[in-house]
Amino acid sequence: MSQADPQIPIFELLPAFEEETGLPVHPRPVPQAVFDEHTPQGASLLQLATRVRALGRDKRLRRIGVVGCGAGEGTTTVALGLARALAGEPRQRILYLELDLKHPTADRELRLAAPAVGVAQFLEGRSQVPVLRHPSGGFWVLSGGSKRPLPLERLAAARLPRLLSAVDRVFDLVIADCPPLLPDPEALFLQDHLDGFVFVVRARHAPLETVRRAALMLRPGLVVGFVLNAQRDLLRR
User: Fold this and answer.
1) Would residue 186 be called left, alpha or beta, if left means φ above 0 and alpha means ψ between -120 and 50 degrees?
2) Is residue 12 part of a domain?
3) CA-based nearest residue to 105, from 33, 47, 27
4) CA dihedral 108, 111, 115, 116 (to 10 degrees)
5) How many domains is the chain partitioned into structurally?
6) Which domain holds residue 110?
7) Is the confidence at residue 4, as pLDDT, over 50?
8) Is residue 16 a part of any domain in this protein?
9) Spatial distance between the Cα atoms of 192 and 153, rounded to a whole number of angstroms
């Protein structure tokens, strides 16, 4: 066999997706509130979606991470609500991508059965075909699946870029639900793979200095905005 011609490009083998469409979804009360544009929470997320789209006109902002300084900030609720708000734009295909693999909660919040192949199983190499669900909220869901104790960087370094490249070909925007920055800064690994972060701060939860320290861990310019969550303890993770 002759040696490969170095001038011929070798294209990356990207994963395919399996789709489950038309799934009934009956979210728990908190996600249901943020899905409703007539509630204060839903109206606020519509405003956030408008700002995200505006920012995307000036810079690449297709892969958006939602992150907080620690557990309990409400990142899953905000990420699901933002995906739902963005999906209201005609002809926009929006994906919610769960990357907090130590504490996956999206299936529980949406009251969906666990996927046959979630993000964790794909990143582990157990399958080449992640399962996309399309519940009635208008956006697509690629949830974590089984809980995994391994650090995200160790688990995802080889296969996450392939997954995100495949996602870019199918979706207009990706909302990535990220692990918290503290105490283990797993989300820092995602800085090289996402275009920006929405930083979620739950009112009366973490000390201001802790929030500031966590936000400064991200590279300058990557935080595109802050969300003050649960001002009246209405939104919980």
Assistant:
1) alpha
2) no
3) 27
4) 110
5) 1
6) 23-229
7) no
8) no
9) 11
Rounded-to-integer distance, Cα 156 and Cα 119, Å: 9
pLDDT digits (tens, 9 = 90+) for 62-88: 999 999 998 888 999 999 999 999 998
Where residue 111 falls (left for φ over 0; alpha for ψ -120 to 50; beta otherwise) is left
Question: Is 237 inside any structural domain?
Answer: no
d(CA 15, CA 38): 38
Tell me which residue has tokens 């936000």.
215
Nearest to 131 by CA among 144, 143, 117, 111: 117
Q: What is the pTM of this model?
A: 0.87
C-alpha separations of 194 from 96, 108, 134, 174, 203 in Å? 13, 25, 23, 9, 26
Q: What is the pLDDT of residues 153-210, one digit of tens each?
A: 787 888 899 999 999 999 999 999 999 999 888 889 999 999 999 999 988 777 888 9
- CATH number of the CATH domain containing 88: 3.40.50.300
The torsion angle over the Cα atoms of residues 144, 147, 151 and 156, rounded to 10 degrees, is -30
pLDDT for the residue numbered 28: 85
Evaluate whether residue 195 is within a structural domain: yes
CB atoms within 10 A of CB 11: 5
